[in-house]
Write a structure and sequence with these properties.
By secondary structure, the protein is of the alpha+beta class. Helix content is 29%, strand content 24%. It is built from six helices and nine strands, in the order H-H-H-E-E-H-E-E-H-E-E-E-E-E-H. The chain has a nine-stranded antiparallel β-sheet with strand order 1-3-4-9-8-7-6-5-2, sandwiched between helices. Strand 8 and strand 9 form a beta hairpin. The protein is globular and about 50 Å long.
Length: 291
């Protein structure tokens, strides 16, 4: 007589196949145990071919999806955090020197009333160009911040680099970026009349920027006029980068030309610093060589 090899897992009680002699009384405990085993197998390995997708779905719903990460919540930009996000001399190449007077910078060549007669749609285009000149002069192209704000500046010879970090209403910020994008067409070339009826010719062209932040817009503005009885040309890079509801504004240049590389450095390194501050990290004192 051969002894049957025990199964590696419990099996369901066999179904009766018909009359087979005297019937033995069922043992309630053993029958209950077999039923429990079969019920367990129905859920896990399957005592029958019934679909067990309902049970599996509950397991998936209870466990987080593989690889899912939660985006960090951005901290509101206060004046203290805005100051932390400002760039330093280490973020700019060459010989820039940080100064504390940037909030008072105003270039007289930017003062002038736009010649409305030049525009086909004077009521809109002239107003856009006037807003550009006034915003560059006052360093407030994006309007009044809705939250924290901080400003710094750098000088290198005759060139100046104005840098601001500030919080804004997102809808207003998107409108400002759309307005800036329209200026190379709306204000391609125009004249403005300054003091003593002196005429300034202004040209606005689009400028490329590093792919930083959630949205960005760059312009190069050239103003030709007379200062101290001599012809002079003021060239400025303007860069605005949106990060969430916050923005970086860079105005860089002077009467000796503009260093576009410094504008790019301010944009790329400044965006990294602002992202760090928004996520609760302290920005590195020096930019990474891998930025």
């Amino acid at each position: 007589m051969t002894t049957a090899r025990p199964s590696s897992r419990p099996s369901c009680p066999p179904r009766p196949s018909g009359p087979a002699g005297p019937t033995r009384p069922a043992r309630p405990a053993r029958g209950l145990a077999a039923a429990l085993v079969c019920g367990t197998l129905l859920v896990t390995a399957g005592c029958s071919s019934a679909d067990d997708s309902g049970s599996t779905g509950s397991d998936v719903a209870a466990a987080p999806a593989a690889g899912r990460t939660t985006a960090p919540t951005a901290l509101p930009l206060t004046n203290v955090r805005a100051r932390m996000a400002l760039i330093t001399e280490g973020d700019l190449e060459d010989d820039w020197t940080q100064v504390k007077t940037a909030g008072n910078w105003h270039d007289r060549l930017l003062v002038g009333k736009v010649d409305v007669a030049q525009f086909l749609t004077a009521s809109t285009q002239a107003a856009d160009c006037q807003r550009l000149l006034d915003g560059l002069y006052e360093n407030d192209l994006l309007g009044k911040p809705s939250g924290g704000s901080a400003v710094t500046g750098f000088q290198q010879g005759a060139a100046r680099l104005f840098y601001q970090v500030a919080a804004y209403d997102k809808a207003d910020l998107d409108k400002s970026l759309a307005w800036l994008k329209s200026l190379p067409t709306a204000c391609d070339q125009f004249n403005a009349v300054g003091s003593q009826n002196s005429t300034r010719s202004v040209q606005v062209v689009q400028a490329s920027l590093p792919k930083a932040g959630d949205a960005r817009q760059g312009l190069t503005v050239t103003v030709k006029g007379v200062s101290g009885g001599s012809p002079v040309t003021l060239t400025l890079d303007l860069a605005v980068v949106r990060v969430g509801d916050d923005a970086i504004t860079v105005i860089n240049g002077g009467t000796g030309g503009v260093d576009h590389d410094s504008t790019d450095d301010a944009v790329s390194h400044g965006t990294t610093r602002l992202k760090d501050v928004r996520e609760g990290r302290t920005p590195a004192p020096e930019p990474s060589q891998f930025d």
